[in-house]
């Protein structure tokens, strides 16, 4: 199941990379033919997106390597590295787009709208399909990459709208105005995801409510007296790691001990925990970590 999930994720990211890179080349050609600085600027932005998606794809593939003596949990956190790098690239790219668009608010220039319409339709189609391929992704890396693509979709929708309106209404300022609006929207959401990724890097819990849920679930089990030294962190935002000490009431037999282990397993089965380490302590036993 895990290999199948990774293969599907790798295929989605591969499609997104190839589509984005191919379209970036088309944009450069289209920007040159239409003499549109806006399209040329977006081509540079999309090329950066393509490099980010490609690096994210590579890191995700490397992240599927088996654990070894140096990385005993495996390489899943490389996917988290990809998410952080891509998020920072997207933030930088968004700031650059805004810096390019702001001067045009003061001195707007009328572009060649016919070529813009053709490229915008193609841009919306290609980036929407690539975003659709990544929509099913659950890792932070895929979510960041999906925001890359959604930014392009919104951007090309803005280009299409502006290209349709400007021949009717002489308002070239619409081009930079919509670009700034959509870029700010994407920027706010990406910053939130990058902050979440940064929290996971310093091993914050994936979700504070999950810790409370797990603790209460364990305390509700028969033979469980208390739970302490419970630690929960995430490898990549999707697969989590849990360690905990459980103090048990007196166990009368080996069957009681085995039954307690099984009930603990069942209590944790609903969580996205890839690695679990539980230490069971008897009620009169001293905790070795205190």
Write the layout of secondary structure elements.
Layout: H1 2-34, H2 37-62, H3 77-106, H4 113-134, H5 140-165, H6 174-201, H7 208-219, E1 224-234, E2 240-248, H8 254-268, E3 273-282
Helix pairs in contact: 1-2, 1-4, 2-3, 2-5, 3-5, 3-6, 4-5, 5-6
Structure description:
The chain is mainly α and 290 residues long. The chain is 66% helix and 10% strand. It is built from eight helices and three strands; from the N terminus they run αααααααββαβ. It has a three-stranded mixed beta sheet with strand order 1-2-3, with helices on one face. Strand 2, helix 8 and strand 3 form a beta-alpha-beta unit. It is elongated.
Give the low-pLDDT segments.
Answer: none
Number of strands: 3
Strand order of the largest sheet: 1-2-3
Query: What value does the Rg take, in angstroms?
Result: 25 Å
Order of helices and strands: HHHHHHHEEHE
Could you state the oligomeric state of the chains shown? single chain
Shape: elongated
Tally of separate helices: 8
Rounded mean pLDDT score: 80
The biggest beta sheet is recorded as: 3 strands, mixed
């Amino acid at each position: 199941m895990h290999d199948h999930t990774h293969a599907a994720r790798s295929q989605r990211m591969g499609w997104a990379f190839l589509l984005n890179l191919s379209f970036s080349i088309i944009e450069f050609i289209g920007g040159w033919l239409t003499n549109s600085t806006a399209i040329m600027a977006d081509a540079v932005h999309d090329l950066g997106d393509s490099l980010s998606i490609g690096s994210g794809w590579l890191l995700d593939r490397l992240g599927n390597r088996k654990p070894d003596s140096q990385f005993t949990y495996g390489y899943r956190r490389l996917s988290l590295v990809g998410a952080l790098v891509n998020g920072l690239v997207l933030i930088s790219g968004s700031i650059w787009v805004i810096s390019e668009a702001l001067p045009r608010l003061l001195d707007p220039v009328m572009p060649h709208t016919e070529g813009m319409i053709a490229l915008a339709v193609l841009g919306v189609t290609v980036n929407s399909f690539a975003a659709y391929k990544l929509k099913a992704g659950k890792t932070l890396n895929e979510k960041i990459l999906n925001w890359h693509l959604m930014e392009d979709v919104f951007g090309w929708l803005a280009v299409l709208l502006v290209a349709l309106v400007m021949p009717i209404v002489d308002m070239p300022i619409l081009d930079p105005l919509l670009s700034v609006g959509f870029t700010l929207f994407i920027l706010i959401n990406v910053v939130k995801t990058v902050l979440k990724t940064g929290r996971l890097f310093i091993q914050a819990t994936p979700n504070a409510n999950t810790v409370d849920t797990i603790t209460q679930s364990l305390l509700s089990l028969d033979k469980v007296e208390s739970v302490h030294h419970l630690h929960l962190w995430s490898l990549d935002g999707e697969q989590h790691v849990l360690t905990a000490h459980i103090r048990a009431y007196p166990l009368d037999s080996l069957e009681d001990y085995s039954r307690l282990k099984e009930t603990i397993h069942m209590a944790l089965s609903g969580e996205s925990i890839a690695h679990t380490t539980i230490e069971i302590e008897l009620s009169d036993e001293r905790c070795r970590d205190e």
